[in-house]
Every structure is written in structure tokens, then in C-alpha cells.
Amino acid sequence: HVAGDLKIDGTINGVKELWGTITSAGTISNAGSGGWTVAKTAIGKYKLTFTSPFSGIPVAIVSSNDANQARIINTQSVTANDVVVILRDANGAFEDSSFSFIVKGSV
User: Fold this and answer.
1) N or C: which end of the chain has fewer CB within 10 A?
2) What's the rounded Cα separation, in Å, for the pair 10 and 34?
3) Are 49 and 15 in contact (CB under 8 A)?
């Protein structure tokens, strides 16, 4: 038994968690939680858009999936509606790479 108010959309007690995996081409490798879309907007730049927005700015965690290369990965922006993720190589040049993410916040 789990205490809390679990909704059909994946929220628990007013908190929503989204996750998934993106290919270097900007396509969905693992839809994870669903509730989001992705677009590759430039070399090394990807925009995750939430199907329904959070009520405020959520927490976003991103991780490169390429163990063979040194990568710099971070969020360029995080809003209630979307997250922009950028990836760079070890020298700081923008570079395409697969990555995973988790976004969690209030609804």
C-alpha cells in the first residue's frame, strides 16, 4: 500500500515526473513516462516540450548516454512548458549525442 493520491496521468500528490531517452538525431529512443515531445533545433541542441505544463519551473536532470566520449551536457533553459538541452564535446564545440532526462515538478 502506498500512501498518496496517484492520478492516471502519473502525478502523485500534485507532483509530476517525466522521463525519457533521446537519440543524437533528436528522435525518441525511449518514451519513458510520455507526456512530452522533442525537437532537435541545432547541432547539439534539443527542446523537450511538455504536453501539459507544470505549475511552476520544474527540476530537470540530464545525462549523456555516450560513454565513449567526454561530453558536457546541461540545460540552457527550464520553464513550466519546456526544457532546452545542449551538448558539447570535450573542447566545448556543440555536438549531437543521445541523452536521458528526468523532469519533476508541481502541477
Assistant:
1) N
2) 10
3) no
SS3 66: coil
Helix, strand, coil shares of the chain as percentages rounded to 5?
0, 55, 45
State phi, psi for 103 to the nearest 5 degrees.
-125, 130
∠ at Cα 18 (24, 72), nearest 5°?
A: 40
Paired residues of 89 in beta bridges? 71
Q: Has this prediction a pTM greater than 0.90?
A: no
Q: Output the tens digit of pLDDT for each of the chain's 107 residues.
A: 455 554 555 667 789 999 999 999 999 999 999 999 999 999 999 999 999 999 999 999 999 998 777 689 999 999 999 999 999 998 999 999 999 999 999 99
